[in-house]
Design goal:
Largest sheet: 5 strands, antiparallel
Oligomer: single chain
Strand content: 15-25%
Helix content: 25-40%
């Protein structure tokens, strides 16, 4: 067999191996791309926090009424008369790493405390503009006032301290604060 024939024969034997290697490289690259990290919910901005809202919620399903855990986290609720709230974690418990917690609450304030919060939404109260309720745990449905609700970015900012991302709505007729918050 001459040199040209041997090289031709060798190429035909190596071609299937090269195809297999190329296929494996493409499959591995695709798998690695699927594992690429994305920003964790704790690093989202308030504007992108809604992406973490789509994560699976877990919790005990217990409806709570004690004020201490809420007023400790949210000093703006110090004049609370009553509260109905739920909490838990976001995401899959089987995935390691820091947890993102959620709190959904309906809190009734005294008149003075409610007036202070209402002052953070100037021009919003009585404007006839209705704010939409965020997705709250369905366990709170019975505690929700009928609205209309007032919302402002100043209210959200006032409650979004210490790494929390919080949406706040006010119901003037019942002096109620409705909030949903995410934090680590």
């Amino acid at each position: 067999m001459d040199t040209t024939a041997r090289m031709h024969d060798r190429r035909h034997r190596l071609a299937p191996r090269a195809t297999v290697v190329a296929t494996v490289v493409v499959v591995v690259a695709g798998l690695l791309a699927g594992c690429a990290s994305s920003p964790s919910p704790d690093r989202t901005t308030a504007a992108s926090a809604s992406a973490s809202d789509s994560a699976t919620r877990s919790g005990t399903g217990e409806i709570r009424h004690e004020l201490g855990p809420l007023t400790d986290r949210f000093p703006q609720l110090a004049t609370a008369l009553s509260a109905t709230w739920m909490s838990g974690t976001m995401g899959d418990e089987r995935v390691p790493g820091p947890s993102t917690y959620w709190i959904d609450a309906v809190v009734v304030l005294d008149e003075a405390g409610f007036a202070e919060l209402l002052a953070l939404a100037p021009g919003e109260a009585g404007s006839g503009a209705k704010a939409e309720l965020p997705d709250l745990d369905p366990g709170l449905d019975d505690a929700l006032p009928p609205g209309p609700f007032v919302r402002s970015s100043a209210l959200d900012d006032a409650f979004s301290q210490d790494g929390r991302s919080t949406q706040v709505l006010l119901d003037d007729a019942t002096s109620s604060v409705i909030l949903t918050s995410r934090f680590q």
